[in-house]
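To: structure desk
From: M.T.
Subject: fold request, one chain
Message: Could you run this one when you get a chance? Sequence is below, nothing fancy, just the single chain.
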Amino acid sequence: MELQIQAKNLELNDQVRNHASQKLGQLGRQLPSLTSASVELASEPTRSQKDRVVAQITLDVNGAILRSEQRAANTRSAINSATEVLSRLIERYKSRTYRSERLRRLQPQQVEAASGTLSTDSTDQDGDPLPDGDLVRIKRFDMPSMTVEEAAVQMQLLGHHFFMFLNSDTDTHNVLYQRRDGNLGLIQPTP
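Reply: Done. Structure tokens follow.
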């Protein structure tokens, strides 16, 4: 497993690195197909002392992305909280995707296509002025094709309210989003 640890406004010492490595090693034993992990630690000024440190952990599991972000008073507690949330996400992922009958029934070529590599490359940019705010972050990633159902599962695993994906049925880019009433909506381009 490839591990990347980054810190912003926070000192990153060997003790923090070892603790993060140990906790992610436990997750790796829970999920053998884990290919890479990224840990971002940041200290943010807040009114509450117990929410100053933010730990964001992103796991790449054969193309599926699992993500957790937690706040705590110190880095150790933030990492522990984030890995606990990821442990629950991994159990949900394994029950829905990893061991699903659908993957067992797919042909070998379809399994390779469904688990294509997804590498995220995010860079902070100097803000370009826009009418309603500044563009402060650009994310680039590979987008394997998937069905609407697979996109819904991926969106739920990420904990996002929207998810952009390449629809394998229409071969177009679509956006799946969660509506206020709890249902899902799909945005498709016109042909």
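Reply (cont.): Confidence is low (pLDDT under 50) at residues 107-125. Let me know if you need anything else for the meeting.
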